[in-house]
Amino acid sequence: MDKMSQVGVMRPLAVDFTKAGVCVLESHHAKGFSMPAVAHRFHNLLHIFAGRGKLVVAGGELVLKPGSFVFIREGLSHQIEDESGNPLSLYAVCVKSEVLQGFCPKEKLLVSGNWKMNQGLRQTLREILIEQGSGHPEEQLMLHSLAAELVVRITRLCEGAVVFEKDGSFSGELSSRMRVEAYVRDLHNRFFEDENLDEAARRIGVSRRGLTSGFREITGHSRQTWIRKLRIEHARHLLESTDRSIDAVAFECGFNDLSHFYRCFKMEAGKSPKNYRVKHQLN
User: Are residues 123 and 211 in the same domain?
Assistant: First the structure.
């Protein structure tokens, strides 16, 4: 059951899981809110949308501010403290470990405080909020799927980012380099999207020049060339392993123009999609 509290609360809300293993809470803290240190037997993903405070864990403190997403792995002892006179309002998505089907982030604590890079997280959270309580026959299945997606999204977004430094201090923000690295990794799942360079730079919170130079340093290629390679790599896989039409392959890989797909494919593979399929399916 989801719990949406519009009045200020003095202590954390009780967690009541649905059959999907998910519980969505909306909590508005009152002045004087108090929370003891606790280690939950489930994963917890917080989204701060008002107020300020801090998350206290062994090894450091993390500032909580509007727009931030924080993943707290099950078993990690933590405590939320509000800033005096500015109590927090937040969403908490509580997820049982079995929802993730064996997947568990390596880090005990993940944080993403960049508003632009959190766009995908906000979208998935909105889908969860719309789905819960909808009464649709497939509601529980959708909640299960979306909660797992939310955890995977923040894991991928923060992959490679150091959360706890060797000296035990906390590092909670992604540098420009880390943002570009996360963007490069994410392209493996988004290479089909129509997003130009300026849009990509704005979304991840770096300058156009920073994205261009950082991308080439990391991949050895320009962004345009790298995306073309990813698209054609996927096209090769589909031509080798499926009987989908070439039109369908081009569409799935992000090409809106078939002749452009043919030119790019021949540039990368050395032959037309049709000839490539014939050769590789015979082999």
Answer: no
| Total-model pTM | 0.63
Whether residue 115 is found in the same domain as residue 242: no
Reported as a single tens digit per residue, the pLDDT across 108-135 is 888 877 666 687 888 889 999 888 878 8
Percent share of the chain, pLDDT over 70: 89
| 143-198 per-position pLDDT tens digit | 999 999 999 888 877 765 433 333 333 344 456 787 788 888 888 878 998 889 99
Count: domains in the chain: 3
Spell out the residues 6+ positions from residue 150 whose beta carbon is closer than 8 angstroms to its own: 45, 93, 95, 121, 124, 125, 128
Domain membership of residue 277 as a residue range: 224-282
Looking at residue 5, its pLDDT comes to 47
Which residue shows structure tokens 């569409």?
251
Binned at pLDDT 50, 70 and 90, residue 253 comes out as very high
Cβ pair 39, 78 in contact under 8 A: yes
- Amino acid code (one letter) for 99: V
Same domain, yes or no: 229 and 216? no
- Please tell me whether residues 228 and 202 are part of one structural domain: no
First and final C-alpha spacing in the chain? 54
- Write out the two tokens for 237: 């896989």
* Per-residue b or e along 69-88, where b marks 16 or more CB atoms closer than 10 Å to that residue's CB: bbbbbbebebebebeeeebb
Q: Locate 6 and state its tokens.
A: 């519009």
How would you classify the pairing of strands 22-29 and 89-95?
Answer: antiparallel
CA angle 57, 49, 47 (to 5 degrees): 50
Say which residue the tokens 């917080």 belong to: 46
Do residues 42 and 96 lie in contact, with contact meaning Cβ atoms separated by under 8 Å?
yes
What pLDDT score does 30 carry? 93
Model pLDDT, residue 283: 59
Q: Based on the domain organization, do 145 and 258 belong to the same domain?
A: no
